[in-house]
Every structure is written in structure tokens, then in C-alpha cells.
Amino acid sequence: MSNRHGENEAPTTPLALAAMLDDAHPIKTAAADFARTSLGSIGSDEFDLARWEAAAEFGIQGLMIPAEYGGQGRTAVEGALTFEGLGLGSNDNGFVFALAAQSFAMQRALITAGTETQRKRWLPELAAGKAVGCFAMSEPAVGSDTGSIGTTATPTDSGYLLNGTKAWVTLAPVADVIIVFATTDPSMGHWGLNGFIMETNRPGVTVGPVQRKMGINSCPFSEVRFSDCAVSADDMLGNPGAGGSVFTSAVEAERAFLYSAQMGSMERVLNLSIERARSREAYGQPIGGFQAISHKIAEMKLRHETARLLIYKAAELFDRGEGMTMAGALAKLQTSEMAVQSALDAMRIFGAEGYTVDAPVEAELRDAIGGLAYSGTSEIARNLVARLLRVDRPMRRKK
Ligand SMILES: Cc1cc2nc3c(=O)[nH]c(=O)nc-3n(C[C@H](O)[C@H](O)[C@H](O)COP(=O)(O)OP(=O)(O)OC[C@H]3O[C@@H](n4cnc5c(N)ncnc54)[C@H](O)[C@@H]3O)c2cc1C
Which atom of ligand 1 is nearest to the CA of 101? Predict the structure, then answer.
């Protein structure tokens, strides 16, 4: 068989390259079809456990969990393709975000830092959709500056007592298991951090109430308070003092791959905008005939494509076991910022109807805005990029 240039077909394309080249990769398409038929569109602002179980049956929560713990052990590229498909297929961005948050942050920390007992206890249930997990670092007074958290882990004869309050914890109101970070010595910053994993109904843990937010409302978040909550050494995630690195490595992966769902929704918003530009008429012609509209759509396409390239680059580096801090930060920045721009342009293209709650694009904008803050803000991602470029280091003077 020859390709369109009349040359022999190239050998099988590596997956990341195929993901970049093929807008309709079969893994993405299968996930999009599933999302369209089984997740559907936004039903209500409530978390839907039945759909959570349906997603688990399709294999979403188990996607990134190794086979020996009941999952499928997929690569990051496969994970990103799947979540891109989910974001494309369903306009319930909250629900898809919930699935991604558990898969790429909470589960990842447990897989990389958990003991065999902890993994066996929780991963099979998470994969099967029988348990919901959450990941708690942020606090009402501390978000970005994670080395300054106020939740303490005070040593006792049998373990630690946790005291403090976590905030904006995705899925906490419906979660069975929580990974929480606390400090044993606030003066040590990141080096004083420790992670713990436990049931959310443990004595001393209070969840809620739900914190109301602007968008992604089918994925609830809330505060979680710890009041003399007793944990043992067996509940610790990773070695004593390793909480900072457990958190950093989980968030590094989350930063890149959580946004594959948003990248999928960017394509959906692009498609809606094209449809509108072709069907809405003004001054006797489809509005897509006006350059001011068609160029917006061209920009939307460019934003979506660049987000895709960056995410699949980060995923490929991750799968190769290579450093992906820069690639992940760039992927997060581009996707989150550009998703907001594209949703805003979509609203402009839809005119007044775009501002009504019944329009298909109104929720997209509210949903997209959350991406500017979760997994770290855009400013923190820019700091990371600048630091890796050593922008803050003075040049050495030549003698
Ligand atoms: C939808 C959603 C879901 C979330 N889910 C979770 C979750 O599951 N678990 C969890 O632990 N947290 C979660 N968060 C919280 C999120 O991680 C924090 O919002 C984020 O880390 C920023 O912290 P902050 O909101 O306290 O902002 P702050 O840290 O108070 O920052 C305020 C502003 O100052 C800027 N700023 C701060 N420091 C710097 C700096 N050094 N340089 C430049 N600018 C700076 C920030 O960029 C921001 O613009 C979620 C947030 C949202 C919106």
C-alpha cells in the first residue's frame, strides 16, 4: 500500500505521534462515543453515582491503575486520548473533570507512594467505581504556597493526631477515601510535609458543606476538617517527611493530563461555533462569511491544536520516564488559558443567545474558568517555566 505521496506506507506510527496526527484516533473516538451515549449531557448539578459506576464499567477509573490492582495499566498517552474523547463526547465538564481528578492526582499518588497494603485496600475499589477518592492539600489560607500549610500531624505514641482544615477538595462530599497532607514541623516547609490516606468516615474527620462554585457543578468540592483525628504509621503515604515529593510528583502528572478532558471540550466548543457560524445569518449571509467571525474560529482551531500537541508531548515524555516538568507546565498553561479564550469567543459568536443559560456555550465558559486555578494557577505554572529557563539567574560577567 502506498501513502498519498506515492511512497510505501510508513511503519506503524508511535502512539503519541498518532494521537497528535489523528484528530479521530480510535481510542479517543471510542471514549467520545461512550461519553455521548452513557454520560450524556449535563443533567443536574448533583454528582451522579450511577454514571460514576457506568464510567467504571467502561474502564475509566481503572485506566491508569495497574492490572494487578484491578485496572488496565494504560500509558499516559492512552489516558490523555481517552479523556480527550470524554471531553469531546460529553458537555458535562464537571463529571469528566471529577473522573480526571481522581485518576490523575489521587490515584497516581497512591500508586506511586502507597504501600502494598494501601494499594490493595483501595485501588481495586477505586477501579471498580465502588469507592470515590479525593486529594487534599489546599487550605482556606494557603493554596499555592504548599510549604506553608497549617494542618498539623502531631506525633503520639501510636501515630499522629491531625488538626486543620482543607478547602476546595474535589469530590470530598462524595468521597470514601482521602489523601491528606499535613506538616509535622511547619518550620521545615516542604520537608515537614507528610501524606496520609484514610477513610473519610474516620473519627475526627468532618466533610462539607459543599462549597458552591461558578462551574463544573456536577463535581462537588468542599472543606474537610480534621480535629484530633488519629492516624497510625500504617496510614502514612510514603516515608516520613516525603509528603512534599509525593505531592509534587502527583501534581506534576496531574498538571499535564487532567487538562486532556478540557482539550476535548475545546474541540466540542469549536464544533458548536462552526455550526453556529454556518447556520446563523445576518445581513443576508451566514455570519461565518464575516472575517471577524471566521478568524475567531481559526484561532479556536489553533488553540485546540497547540493544546493537543503539548499534552501529547508531555504524555510521551512521561511514558518514556523522561522529565516532563516543562512540557506539563506548558500543556496546562496553554490548555487552561486557551479554553477560556475559546469559550469566550464561542459566546461572542452565539450573540445574546450565548449569554442565556439554555445556550450550549454558556456553561462552557463558566466551566473553563476553573482550569485557571486547579492543579495550580497559571501564575504558578509560568513561574515554573521561567524558573526552568533560569530567567531569574543573573548572567555571569565575562572577565
Ligand atoms: C475547581 C477547583 C478544584 C480544586 N480541587 C482541589 C483539590 O481537589 N485539592 C486541593 O488540594 N485543592 C484543590 N483546589 C485548589 C487549588 O489547588 C488552589 O486554588 C490553587 O492551588 C491556588 O491556591 P489559592 O486558590 O489559595 O490561591 P492563592 O495561592 O492564594 O493565590 C492567589 C493569587 O496569587 C497568585 N500567586 C500566589 N503565589 C504566587 C507567586 N509565587 N507568584 C505569582 N503569583 C502568585 C495566584 O496565582 C493567584 O492568582 C481546587 C481549585 C479549584 C478552582
Answer: 8
